[in-house]
Each structure stands twice: as structure tokens, then as C-alpha cells.
């Protein structure tokens, strides 16, 4: 029993805000099974980012898998398990699952905003439905409920009614580092003296919890983010302090800054980040000038040469197919799942830059400059169409590349047929 609950606790990490308190009407359906069966066959194509048990690399799919294991072991759906094993005993009566019994445009919901071309706009609710990815982060909650969740952790697994719903030893094991976090992975979060006036450091990963320290106090935390919604939950168990911060607009580092501020107030320390300097953070401690990624200057005006050579479907067996098509104006348009966009010419004939339009426009158009995706095409023989494309995103660092191979015309026709039948 407690193993299922452990899995639930592992997975119930990403929580957002609603203030609606109606009673849930759970349905006993398992909706993530089929995806997981499919995922299991495809996972072999996921390239290892390190040696087995050597390092930590966050993977939402693994939370989805853990959620599915909990469903199979208990015979109940993910949503029912959350309700019966966590929300009900903890009286988290406001909490529910996005796309299941609440939508982000519901009454009393903190609506989802995004930055598009320097404007703050309301985004389409459809991009917040993560199905079948709910165990990786789809819980809508309220401040009151999150206090109950934090308090339950601080009481070491005991509800306010005194019921033990998870073995304390199991919980402690979750907060204990099992993998060392390599400093390169988390440089943005690390603050050390003498550069900074205080210290903050992530050093390990437990079961779903990053283990850290702030001003010398042990901290465990987990974050969550889907487009607009960004959350972090911190436990400073030695201080009996839990902090939950959530936003409905992507505001970068601000959550971490708010955490420092709240914790400083709690500790009775003068906040080192305040209204005078918080907006410039990490300046003046870090020189960020000259670090902004490339901008529109990489785009060369004019038409893409031989656009027909790029047209086709490119497959990545894990991440699905990218379709490049030419429209009536000889422009190259891309469709990749929910992502649609347009390709632009660069000085290199085989390198095209993509900007995203439609639902997910905010991904490449947050402000004045465009943050393009780099699509680099290769082919062995100049007389044939491009055979491969490598997708990279400057924002994500040089290591984040994905390779796609051209799908033959016959295979593309078969794929289209399958898509039509779904
Ligand atoms: C939560 O709902 C249960 C069942 O309806 C009710 O008994 C309990 O009082 C509620 N708790 C809170 C804090 O609203
Ligand atoms: C909690 O788990 C530990 C380790 O598995 C075990 O030794 C202990 O008996 C458990 N305690 C209870 C109350 O079940
Ligand atoms: C913010 O902190 C700095 C450095 O400690 C201090 O000089 C400044 O007066 C503070 N501002 C406010 C509004 O407290
Ligand atoms: C900050 O970095 C830029 C670019 O690397 C450099 O030109 C500038 O001198 C640096 N400023 C300071 C104060 O170190
Ligand atoms: C081709 O696509 C571009 C960019 O989306 C659009 O502006 C243009 O109107 C399209 N042309 C036709 C003929 O569809
Ligand atoms: C783009 O980069 C160039 C050179 O690095 C710079 O002069 C220009 O201001 C930048 N434009 C935008 C919109 O950021
Ligand atoms: C695009 O990516 C390729 C290889 O991944 C790289 O060689 C090229 O410099 C990149 N171009 C731009 C403009 O980012």
C-alpha cells in the first residue's frame, strides 16, 4: 500500500493554483496505460545522457511511468488514487487534475498568461492539458491546500487528524540524496561566496526532491512548469518551514528570488535581494552583458534556395515526425505535433531558422528579438533531397540537439494513413 502512495508522492510534485472548493467526482478510468505501453517500446531510442547511476537527468516520462505503475499496482486510475490517497486524507478539497475535473479557464482559476512580442497575453487552455502526462504535473491546487501538503511533509507523513499515511522512513529516504548533482547542470542556481553575499547550492537528488542548502540550512525542493505556470515547493525541515511559490506567467528566476526573500524574513535576516536590486539579479554579482543569445541578425533576407530539397517528413523514433512543406508562395512551413512555424534563410544554405507561430508562438517570440530554432539539414549526395535534420535551440545550450531522418515516400504515406485512422 505504502509503495503506491510513495509513487503518488513522487509524482504529485507539480501543483498550481485554483481557489474553487467544490467536491470531486472521480471516475474510475485508466487513461495513461496505452501511452505507457507505447512509450516502453520507444524508450530504447532515448540516448543515454550519462553512465548508468552516475548522474541525474530529469525526465518527465519517468514520472509518467511511475504513475502508471501506481495504477497497475492499485487497480485504480491516477486521478482516483490522488483523490483517495492524498487529497481526501489531507483534506485538500480544492485540488484537482487539469484536463480531468478542471480546466485552466475555470472560474476562480489563476488564468495562464504568456509573453508574446513584449505583451502579456492570455494563452489557449488547450496547451495545459498534458494528457497522458498527468503524473508529471497536472495538479491544480489552492494556497490553503498547499499549506496542508507542506504541513503533512513537515509532520513527517502524519495528517492533521493524526493518521500516518506514509512511513516516516520512506519519506526521509525521498529527501535523501541518492545521486550527486553535477555542478555544471545547475550553474544558474548556485551562489557561492565570495561572489554572492549568501550561499545557495544544489548538491544531490533524492526521490523527486533536489537536495540543497541556503545560507547553510538544508533545503529540499521540487519545481514544476507548464508554459505559464511555474511553481516551486521548498522544505526546510530543520526550521519547520515550507515555502510554496507559484506564478501564472513565466517570470524566469523570480521564484527563486522570492524564496530567498521569504526565507530571509523567516530567519530574521535582512533580505539581501529586495525591491532595489531584485529586478537586476543576478547582476551586479554576475556580469550578464554579452551573454544574450543570437538574434535576428542570423536571418538573411530572400527566398530559401531549392526549397523542394527540404520538403518531406523527418522522423525521430522517440520524439515523432517533423513535416516540412512548401506553400503556394514557396515558403517552407513546419508542422511538428502542436508546433507550427516558418523557416527562414541563413548564410548557410543547409541551415534554416524556425520561428513558431500559432498556439505556441510565445516560445520563440517572447520579446523584441526572435529566439529561433536551428534546423541544420545534411545529405550525402548533392543530387538528392536532404536526408537528415538536426534540431537545436540556442537557448537550451549546445548539447540539446535532436536528429531526424527523412522518411521515404512510401513510409510517409503509411504514416499519414495511420494518423488518419487515429
Ligand atoms: C473537505 O471535504 C470533506 C468531505 O466533503 C469535509 O468533510 C471536510 O470538512 C472538508 N474539509 C475542508 C477543510 O474543507
Ligand atoms: C517503516 O519502514 C521501515 C523501513 O522499511 C521499517 O523498518 C519500519 O518497520 C516501518 N515502520 C512502520 C511503522 O511501518
Ligand atoms: C536593498 O539591499 C541593499 C543592499 O543590502 C541596500 O543597500 C538597499 O538599501 C536595500 N533596499 C531596500 C529598499 O531595502
Ligand atoms: C562584462 O562582460 C562583457 C562581455 O564579456 C565585457 O565586455 C565587460 O567588460 C564586462 N564587465 C565587467 C564589469 O566585468
Ligand atoms: C505561405 O505561408 C506564409 C507564411 O505563413 C504566408 O504568409 C503566405 O500567405 C502563404 N502563402 C500561401 C499561398 O498560402
Ligand atoms: C542583435 O544583435 C546585434 C549585434 O549583436 C545588436 O547590435 C542588435 O541590437 C541586436 N538586436 C536585437 C533586436 O536584439
Ligand atoms: C546551427 O546549427 C549548426 C549545427 O548544429 C551550427 O553549425 C550552426 O552554426 C548553427 N547556426 C546558427 C546560426 O545558429
From TrEMBL:
Superkingdom per UniProt: Eukaryota
Gene3D superfamilies linked: DD-peptidase/beta-lactamase superfamily (3.40.710.10)
Pfam families on file: Beta-lactamase (PF00144)
Beta-lactamase-related domain span: 33-251
Alphabetic keyword roster: Signal
Signal sequence region: 1-21
Record's protein name: Beta-lactamase-related domain-containing protein
Organism whose genome encodes this protein: Pomacea canaliculata (Golden apple snail)
Native organism taxonomy: Eukaryota, Metazoa, Spiralia, Lophotrochozoa, Mollusca
Amino acid at each position: 500500500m505504502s509503495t503506491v502512495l510513495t509513487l503518488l508522492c513522487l509524482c504529485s510534485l507539480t501543483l498550481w493554483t485554483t481557489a474553487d472548493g467544490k467536491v470531486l467526482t472521480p471516475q474510475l478510468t485508466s487513461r495513461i496505460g496505452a501511452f505507457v505501453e507505447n512509450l516502453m517500446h520507444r524508450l530504447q531510442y532515448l540516448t543515454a545522457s550519462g553512465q548508468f547511476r552516475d548522474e541525474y537527468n530529469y525526465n518527465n516520462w519517468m514520472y509518467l511511468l511511475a504513475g502508471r505503475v501506481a495504477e497497475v499496482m492499485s487497480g485504480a486510475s491516477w486521478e482516483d488514487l490522488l483523490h483517495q490517497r492524498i487529497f481526501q486524507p489531507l483534506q485538500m478539497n480544492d485540488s484537482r487534475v487539469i484536463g480531468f475535473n478542471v480546466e485552466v479557464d475555470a472560474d476562480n482559476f489563476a488564468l495562464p498568461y504568456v509573453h508574446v512580442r513584449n505583451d502579456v497575453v492570455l494563452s489557449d487552455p488547450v496547451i495545459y492539458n498534458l494528457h497522458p502526462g498527468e503524473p508529471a504535473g497536472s495538479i491544480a491546487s489552492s494556497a490553503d491546500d498547499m499549506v496542508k501538503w507542506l504541513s503533512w511533509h513537515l509532520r513527517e507523513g502524519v495528517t492533521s487528524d493524526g493518521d500516518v499515511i506514509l512511513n516516516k522512513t520512506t519519506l526521509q529516504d525521498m529527501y535523501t540524496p541518492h545521486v550527486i548533482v553535477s555542478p555544471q547542470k545547475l550553474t544558474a542556481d548556485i551562489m557561492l561566496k565570495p561572489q554572492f553575499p549568501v550561499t545557495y547550492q544544489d548538491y544531490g537528488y533524492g526521490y523527486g526532491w533536489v537536495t540543497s542548502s541556503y545560507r547553510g540550512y538544508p533545503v529540499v525542493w521540487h519545481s514544476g512548469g507548464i508554459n505559464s505556470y511555474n511553481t516551486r515547493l521548498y522544505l526546510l525541515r530543520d526550521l519547520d518551514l515550507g515555502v510554496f511559490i507559484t506564478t501564472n506567467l513565466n517570470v524566469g528566476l523570480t521564484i527563486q528570488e522570492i524564496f530567498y526573500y521569504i526565507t530571509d524574513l523567516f530567519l530574521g535576516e535582512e533580505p539581501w535581494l529586495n525591491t532595489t536590486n531584485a529586478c537586476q539579479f543576478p547582476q551586479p554579482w554576475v556580469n550578464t552583458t554579452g551573454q544574450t543569445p543570437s538574434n535576428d541578425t542570423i536571418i538573411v533576407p530572400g527566398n530559401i534556395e531549392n526549397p523542394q530539397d527540404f520538403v518531406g517528413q523527418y522522423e525521430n523514433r522517440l520524439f515523432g515526425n517533423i513535416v516540412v512543406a512548401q506553400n503556394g508562395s514557396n515558403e517552407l512551413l513546419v508542422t511538428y505535433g502542436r508546433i507550427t512555424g516558418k523557416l527562414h534563410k541563413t548564410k548557410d544554405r543547409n541551415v534554416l531558422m524556425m520561428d513558431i507561430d500559432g498556439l505556441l508562438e510565445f516560445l520563440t517570440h517572447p520579446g523584441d528579438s526572435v529566439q529561433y530554432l536551428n534546423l541544420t539539414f545534411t545529405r550525402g549526395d548533392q543530387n538528392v533531397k536532404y536526408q537528415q535534420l538536426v534540431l537545436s535551440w540556442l537557448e537550451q545550450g549546445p548539447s540539446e540537439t535532436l536528429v531526424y531522418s527523412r522518411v521515404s515516400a512510401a513510409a510517409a504515406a503509411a504514416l499519414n494513413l495511420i494518423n488518419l485512422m487515429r
